[in-house]
Amino acid sequence: SFPRYITPSPRVRNREKIVISGDPPSLINPPQGCRLNQRCPYKADICSQCSPELKEVKPNHWVACHRAAELDFTKYTGGILSELF
Prior knowledge:
Elements: H1 10-13, E1 54-58, E2 61-64, H2 80-84
Antiparallel strand pairs: 1-2
């Protein structure tokens, strides 16, 4: 028997993706502060000092970003997990 692969719905497949350049952070020796602070184009000084808390910006859409209130993350809503399950 072949493994069952999940095929994303057209709504998920055609959604604009956020691409983060650079290498992922080390899991053994992660950076201080936000794990993505070395790769994020929206980085602020606080990002390298402390980890952001997870916040719900819309129903079923969570972000961990110090700048979430000033940046518009809502255009990326929908949550892939909510559409797959």
